[in-house]
Model the fold of this input.
Amino acid sequence: MKILIIEDEKELRETLVESLEKELYVVETAATYDSADEKISIYDYDCILLDIMLPDGSGLNLLTKLKELGKSENVIIISAKNSLEDKVSGLGLGADDYLTKPFHIAELNARIKAVFRRKNLKGTNSIQIGNIALDLDERLFKVDDNIIHLNRKEFDILKYFLLNKNRLVRKTVLAEHVWGDNIDEADNFDFIYYQLKNLRKKLLESKATITIESIYGVGYKLVEV
Done:
């Protein structure tokens, strides 16, 4: 899961990054309105943690832009302001949840998972297609009820493809989602090729009823077989 933290308070931002990375999320940050505006315009995220009080602008204006882009349904507002007016405004602009500072990291993590389930999994915590099942909470991959070991990146790649079944997935989009926005600095995408090669081998050997096809020169697509 790829998360963007929009928070100007350095200590809180670093605490959130450390905690969420322990949950094996890909985490990006923005400390200002302008940097956040740039990121939400270019990249997609599974969840956005948004502070509405930024030094150079209002988070509610960012939320308005996210709504215009059709990306506001996965936003959790995190704010020191506990006024009813702010909550109504934020939720009215499409935010999924509102959490008042200070809060427990465990509660935030539970709300992030709830946002992801509502947005992508219709309230469940697993993805099932054919004879395979991917348990997102336990990070388990099963084929015919047999557990197949996947490393962290293989699991994240498979999850992304399952959530985008039958859709063309470009290499750059896959890299950004699984490895983070700084992937722009990479010289090539050989690391994706090797992870995909190993994942495909495991799918074939386990007789999974899905496969990841190469679309020459463009990207990949997960299909049932």
In short: The mean pLDDT is 88. Residues 45 and 218 are 22 Å apart (CA to CA). The radius of gyration is 18 Å. The chain has two domains: 2-120, 126-224.
